[in-house]
Specification:
Layout lengths: L1 H40 L10 H23 L2 H7 L2 H13 L6 H19 L10 H8 L2 H36 L6 H6 L3 H32 L1
Helix pairs in contact: 1-2, 1-4, 3-5, 4-5
């Protein structure tokens, strides 16, 4: 009994340490990304100086990966994987506070849903699963339920990709049609002519007339010399 209780305590401590390491990894990753974004906002890459903020952010993100590895060594993946979504929550809070980025109701709702999903998965996740060999996994992958699940996921992914492709294509065509110049009649232009436009038009017409007169004089001079 004492051996079993000791094993349970060690497993609980391992899961607690893994959760703590995962939260530290999310904090480091969020801080590093915010620092890199701040470096881009300050346009450090366009200045002759050394972009130390960007490189410091990269180092902090790398440290977050180290904490993720430590978390995986102390807790099962079913507990660690949902906690990585806490990075989204920290990014939203840090970008709003440090970068003065506006967050709308859609971003707040999505962040809350992600956080609630991660919390629920951690609370009701599988505590232990039996070890299975390769042939048992292959047999499980061949079940009808798994085949139906994969088919539904593939169909949903295909529909989403096609929808995004057609939406992007229609938006590109609409934007291009808006950028293309529309034919306008000369009468329409004269009807909407402002005094500034009138002055410019008269100056251009005068310049054209002067150019024509100069061409005529040059032609007459050439003709007299040839005669």
């Amino acid at each position: 009994v004492s051996t079993q209780s000791t094993g349970v305590c060690l497993a609980t401590m391992g899961r607690a340490e893994g959760t703590l390491f995962s939260l530290c990894a999310s904090a480091f990753a969020s801080s590093g990304l915010v620092l890199q974004k701040h470096s881009h906002n300050m346009k450090e890459w366009d200045t002759p100086g050394f972009p130390w903020r960007w490189w410091l952010g990269l180092l902090i993100v790398t440290l977050g990966g180290v904490f993720d590895s430590l978390a995986l060594l102390n807790a099962p993946l079913i507990d660690i994987a949902p906690l990585t979504s806490v990075t989204v929550l920290m990014n939203a809070l840090a970008s709003s506070y440090f970068l003065n980025e506006s967050i709308g109701i859609v971003e707040i709702t999505a962040t809350v849903i992600i956080f609630m999903g991660a919390t629920t998965t951690c609370l009701f996740g599988a505590a232990a699963t039996p070890a299975r060999d390769l042939w048992e996994l292959i047999d499980m992958f061949g079940r009808r339920s798994f085949t139906i699940y994969i088919a539904v996921v593939c169909c949903a992914t295909t529909v989403a990709v096609l929808f995004l492709w057609f939406s992007h294509r229609n938006l590109s065509a609409t934007a291009q049609s808006r950028l293309d110049p529309l034919p306008v009649s000369y009468t329409h232009l004269r009807a909407h002519e402002t005094p500034e436009h009138l002055v410019c038009r008269l100056l251009l017409e005068k310049k054209k007339k002067n150019t024509r007169m100069q061409k005529r004089l040059i032609w007459m001079c050439i003709k007299q010399k040839s005669a």
